[in-house]
Amino acid sequence: MSLNSTQRTATLAATQAVTYDLLVIGGGITGAGIALDAASRGLKTLLVEMQDFGAGTSSRSTKLIHGGLRYLKQFEFKLVREVGRERAILFRNAPHIVIPEKMLLPVYRGGSFNRLSLRFGLWFYDRLAGVKRSERRKMLNRAQTMVQEPLLSGKNLQGAGIYSEYRTDDARLVIEVIKTAVREGATALNYCRAEELTYADGKVTGAQVRDLVTDASHQVRAQYVVNAAGPWVDGIRKLDGSEKGKRLHHTKGVHLVVPHKRLPLRQATYIDAPDGRMVFIIPRQLWTYIGTTDTSFKGDLAHPRTTAADVRYLLEATNTAFSEAKITQADISSTWAGIRPLIHEEGKSPSELSRKDEIFYSDTGLVTIAGGKLTGFRKMAEKVVDVVAERMNRAGGNVGRCVSDQIGLEGGSLGNRRSLAEFVEHLQRESGVARKEVEWLAGLFGSNARQILDWAAELEGEEELRITRAAVRYAVEHEGARTLGDFFIRRSALLYFGREWIAPVLDLVADELRTWLGDDHVVDPEQEFARMYREVVEFPKDDFAVAAV
Ligand code: FAD
């Protein structure tokens, strides 16, 4: 099976003839990881996602593959060790989208850390998370800190620590994992919603799914069903009649994007917010993004919005740490809001809730996985598929152990190049295409950028436009893209980082989608873009004056 959107009808029809070993509900990072783990152990696996792959929380995170420094403060040592190990595996298996990023953590008098606690915390973190010797912490005094990051406010500054984090593109990570799962034999369908679970003798045996493209309903059969619906897991447990005991606590996190020239940080920085929480400020090419908030959420899970209060909070934190920057609402070029699917704990505030994952079992056989992080997705998947494998083996099956730590993700075959930068260098020499184009493509598609460059070479016209057209074709044929949003938000991240580049290619991308998917596919690009813009970019303006502290 493939992720080719032009063959979606045939892919869906083929599901009718199969009884799957495993049906996975949810195509965020959790479901994607489970599908990859299961398929690579030889299970016949089907994943259904009601939106686009990654369109839930997994495209709306801080986009960090964490070592989990903040968990040290909560004494979650096991979690720090586990995510540290996972981070190293992911870096090895997906070097094109897991990029080392030094993080500066300034120390202020009266702040979250003092120099001694930070020195000890980072030392402990390096050891627990298994950080490579060359990437271990560095402590800076006040003067060194100001040289490292001249934009920082000097008042009460005592010094800083520098430690290792890794940056990713969350939606692309989901898509690469799903592509890899499909390569390993899984079937994955986006825009396909599980509407009812089906049962035989009290055991769940599949689901009634609706194809949201044609509105047709289909029965899919599976021996085991896993609920990996992220913020929606309780909804699926409700369908199953098993929503009892622990439940989710949804919290919202918002990010703001400003042009890098307005906040020209030299490296990512982790600052104190006035309420004692901590906020990341991360440069990314021509932009800098700021996040995140953490507030309880009870609204529409599919359409969380940025509010004036979110903006005020993040700008206050930013302008306190970088008092000369004086960032205002007018500087914000986009925002995004995501919902954390955390497990409720009585009496705890959003920031205090554990980020640990947990598996819930139902008498019907439904297995639900809740909580967790992007970073730990592979380990979460292993735990879930171990449960399924054990059940299958008890019934006479022969399912092997997890091997996903050994599987290179799609796009990650950089040959003998040691980093993405070396690969870009090589690909540019090989293709003769402008460096910025190769950088853009390889940063998104990794080693699969080669295929796009080959297709672009067969087209006529300006290089930039040929490459855009070929990238759209690749997204349709290899990544299940169907809409402008699929391309501009989750395949290329342009709506967040590079909105001004969309208008000149909007019609071209719409035409290309029509070429591959049919004439009636994108009816009114302007209108669709305006809808996307309202959903993802806009926020209610406030008349607050941003305090420059
Ligand atoms: P989702 O990504 O939401 O996926 C669940 C999917 O299920 C959705 O796409 C949904 O459409 C689908 N679905 C629901 N119901 C159905 C149905 N009936 N049929 C079919 N499909 C269905 N983690 C990190 O490691 N690093 C970070 O930097 C980080 N930053 C974060 C910042 C914020 C603001 C937030 C909110 C989270 C952050 N996280 C981070 C946590 C991480 O993003 C989440 O833990 C993770 O993305 C959750 O993935 P998921 O697959 O469980 O949920």
Structure characterization notes:
This protein is of the alpha+beta class and 549 residues long. Helix content is 37%, strand content 22%. The strands form two sheets. Strands 3, 4, 5, 6, 11, 12, 13, 14, 15 and 16 form a ten-stranded mixed β-sheet that branches. Strands 1, 2, 7, 8, 9, 10, 17 and 18 form an eight-stranded mixed β-sheet that branches. A hairpin with a 2-residue loop joins β13 (278-284) and β14. α11 crosses α12 (435-445) and α12 crosses α13 (449-457). The structure holds flavin-adenine dinucleotide (FAD). Residues 25-31, 48-51, 55-58, 60-64, 66, 193-194, 228-232, 236, 253, 292, 338-341, 372-375 line the site of flavin-adenine dinucleotide (FAD).
Number of strands: 18
Sum up the overall morphology in one term. Answer: globular
| pLDDT < 50 runs, ≥5 residues | 545-549
The CA-CA distance between the termini, in Å, is 57 Å
Percent strand: 15-25%
Give the structural class.
alpha+beta
Q: How confident is the prediction overall: mean pLDDT?
A: 92
- The percentage helix is 25-40%
The distinct bound ligands, ions and cofactors come out as: flavin-adenine dinucleotide
| Biggest sheet features | 10 strands, mixed
Number of helical segments?
A: 17
Computed Rg: 23 Å
SSE diagram, text form:
Layout: H1 8-15, E1 19-25, H2 29-40, E2 45-48, E3 64-65, H3 69-73, H4 77-93, E4 99-108, H5 115-128, E5 138-141, H6 142-148, E6 157-167, H7 170-183, E7 187-189, E8 192-200, E9 203-211, E10 216-227, H8 233-239, E11 248-259, E12 268-272, E13 278-284, E14 287-291, E15 295-296, H9 308-321, E16 334-343, E17 357-361, E18 367-371, H10 377-394, H11 420-431, H12 435-445, H13 449-457, H14 463-479, H15 484-491, H16 502-517, H17 525-536
Parallel strand pairs: 1-2, 1-10, 2-7, 4-12, 10-18
Antiparallel strand pairs: 3-6, 4-6, 5-6, 8-9, 9-10, 11-14, 11-15, 11-16, 12-13, 13-14, 17-18
Helix pairs in contact: 2-7, 2-10, 11-12, 12-13, 13-14, 14-16
Flavin-adenine dinucleotide (FAD) is lined by residues 25-31, 48-51, 55-58, 60-64, 66, 193-194, 228-232, 236, 253, 292, 338-341, 372-375.
